[in-house]
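Sequence and structure are kept together here, with a separate record for every protein. A complete record is shown below as an example:
=====
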Amino acid sequence: MFESLVKSIENTFTQFTLGRLMYITFIFLLLGGGIYIYNDSTGYTFYGRIDHQITALERLHQLEQKGIKTSNDLLPLYRKIINDLKDPNIKPFTFSTYKEEIIKTLSATVVMLGFIIYGIIGMVRGIKDSSSVFFGALMCAAAFGIPAWYMPIILNSLWVTSVLLFTIQIIFMVLLTKKYNK
């Protein structure tokens, strides 16, 4: 079963049809919807967050009993943890907040974005196989872009990370070209 699902995902890239794309989209929506419904009906993430807070409170209570309030070195850290539990610092979405993630995602998908634009232009002009180029590049952009968003910064340098992601993308394109140009 799993092998046939992987094969159908592969066929979406190599032998693109709108039906295959809709099938894969349906599978991912079904999977995501199932996870959402499970979380919504069980409160898994809500109760997990409460469980983590209780664990933190238990640890803080143990530290309090061991006399952390009398330690001049640990008291500021203890107070900071208490303040963080009272008021967690959750940032609202702004582009400046996610600047690094956007740069990493763009560097991992820039070549694919070029193929997406090429596919759109080809579809508008009626060039054969342009839709395959468009949707294949779109799937590859998603496959590279989503992990890049969550990838940590390597060697504390956004430039190193961006160059690495771009290089991985180029290597993938070269390998893909060699495989299908036989």
User: Anything to note?
Assistant: Residues 70 and 178 are 67 Å apart (CA to CA). DSSP finds seven helices and no strands in the chain. Residues 99-125 form the longest helix (27 residues).
